[in-house]
Amino acid sequence: MEEKEIQDNNTGAIDLRRVSVTRYITPLREGGSLPALADADDGFKYVVKFRGAGHGTKALISEFIGGELARAAGLRVPELVLLDLDENFGRTEADEEIQDLLKGSTGLNLGLHYLSGAMTWDVSVNRAAPDEASRIVWLDAFLTNIDRTVRNTNMLLWHRELWLIDHGASLYFHHTWDGWEDKALSPFPYVKDHALLRDASRLREADEYMRSRITPQIIRNIVEAIPTEWFDEIPADEARRVYIEFLNRRLANSSIFTDHAIEAHNRLYI
Question: Residue 209 contacts by C-beta under 8 Å, 6 or more apart in sequence?
Answer without folding.
Answer: 131, 135
